[in-house]
Design brief:
This protein is an alpha+beta fold. It contains 3 helices and 10 strands; from the N terminus they run ββββββαββααββ. Strand 1 and strand 2 form a beta hairpin. It is elongated.
Length: 161
């Protein structure tokens, strides 16, 4: 590996026929690949990239150790009883994190009932959701929600399979 090569975990944030935009999940640095070899938005790569000479403004994919896809699921299921209990103890907008039985992680938010749908949409559209899934080695992100009176619960489940 040369000094200018970079190895890490990257999320494909944008893919076209001629180019791809990668985001490093640890540093949030963005790299544009000069070619697309079948990559799609939301692909996660454990890879090595290198700048293309002579200008070194675009990058080339040198090696891909692993490639997986993160599936975003807007679920019609309600959060689990445990997630609802965590949210009930939280202030509006606070994040409660807990490990999922087995592997994975669950993030729970208490939000005003009128903002539950908006909050779910924000999570599903946010590139950081995919980056977080990549860091947690999840391949599926499931967003669940419920409303009880004036309070809503949003559960974001990062699942390994």
């Amino acid at each position: 590996m040369t000094e200018t090569e970079k190895t890490g975990t990257f999320v494909v944030t944008h893919a076209e026929d001629e180019s791809v935009v990668l985001r490093d999940v640890d540093s949030a640095q963005v790299h544009t690949l000069a070619a697309n070899d079948g990559l799609e938005t939301h692909d996660v790569l454990e890879a090595t990239i290198a700048p293309e000479p002579p200008l070194e403004v675009s990058w080339t994919l040198i090696d891909v150790e692993d490639r997986r896809r993160v599936e975003l699921v807007d679920s019609d299921l309600e959060p689990t009883t445990h997630s609802k209990e965590l949210a009930a103890e939280a202030n509006f907008g606070d994040l409660e994190q807990h490990e999922r039985a087995g592997t994975g992680e669950i993030h729970v938010f208490r939000v005003p009932a009128a903002r539950v749908e908006e909050a779910a949409r924000d999570v599903l559209e946010d590139d950081e959701t995919i980056a977080r899934a990549a860091r947690l080695e999840a391949v599926r992100v499931e967003v669940r929600r419920s409303v009880d009176g004036e309070a809503g619960v949003l559960s974001v489940r990062y699942l390994p399979d």
